[in-house]
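Researcher: I'm preparing a figure for a lab meeting and need a structural model of a single chain. I don't have an experimental structure, so a prediction will have to do for now. The sequence is pasted below. Please return the structure as tokens so I can convert it later.
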Amino acid sequence: MAAGDGRELERPAHARLRASSGEDVLSVDAVEQQAAGLAQQGPGLDLIGELAGGSPLLRIDGLVAGYGKMEILHRVDLQVAAGQSLCLIGPNGAGKSTVLHSIYGFTRIWAGSILLDGEDVTRLSADEKLSKAGIAYVLQDNSVFPDMTVEENLWMGGYLLDSPEQAKEAAERVFEKYERLARRRQQPARILSGGERRLLEISRALVMDPRVLLIDEPSIGLEPRYIDMVFEILADLQQSEGKAILMVEQNAKKGLEFADVGYVLVSGSVAMADTGDRLLRHPDVGRLFLGG
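Model: Understood. Here is the structure written out token by token.
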């Protein structure tokens, strides 16, 4: 198991989730047991294809993956179209971040395939996923370089481009798009607010002009006003630039409100898939993952 994925496997026994009654609480173990009941059949490939409009940009077929000798994902199928957003929700340890890791090349893959616009990219390295396939990954943890300026952080996003000049040109396009960052371009990244740091992380991924954005916990650690700002930025990238967005979001309600499509992962398998709106209204999803 990769050291960086330890948090996904943690199941604190004392943690609690409020049930729909508002009076009873479910332990994490109880949530997992009841969520497992949702996974008895799972969505069919016809539904998965229909949710992607029949024309997926990113397609995962029968993915079996994990870390070392530990298998985390068990025949996962997933499809997302260009200009579409998909949110993965589920209990801790379900394999949500491992899906992103696998797409980007951070896991061991035993079976299955990852296709981008019909081309098999399963075995590409992370650098190749970014430079050749146009898949970018925005990490969950704070990944800015605090002692570099905002401008220098953006230049780092273009480290796979053919020349530093190309990275600088791409950074200028980002500054034209986001005045908030342009005002800070010569300031060290450490002085940025949480929301501005998240904007910088997303913007740095945009330097390579990816077709697919993988985003792990876009709202983590942010104040509500910055959460709204980040989701507005993602909506613009999806709607104005046609990027496919695949995210993991612990704030399941916020993630499903934003996303066109939602998947519920349980024990490394897709238990449910539907539109974000319909999952929000599903009684079991509400009871187990939305706090009522």
